[in-house]
Structure prediction request, 123 residues.
Amino acid sequence: QVQLVESGGGLVQPGGSLRLSCAASGTILSADTMGWYRQAPGKQRDLVASVTSGGGGTNYADSVKGRFTISRDNRKNAVYLQMNSLKPEDTAVYYCNVRRSALWSGTAGMDYWGEGTLVTVSS
Prediction:
């Protein structure tokens, strides 16, 4: 099993920066995908950024490209999201995600989620 705990959310003014951290308990393989999703009130949960198999590839939502940077530390079972030039539309609960790779015979493709950390961008 995997438990994910996010931290780093808070209130920030437009144009400001925040760094989100996700600490994972349990076994995370480099082949597993780690990422961040966000959900604003009344809206669906959407992908923000992810680190693909082996940690060598990244994927970003178009709305955050050039502003957000995802990084991963496999030894620490951690994933981070550096958010710069924040906009009010970035306001949401941000969730850490782990998706099991096909190497897991029993849980391939299974998603694990943290409880979320709130990011509020407002003046």
The chain has a mean pLDDT of 95.
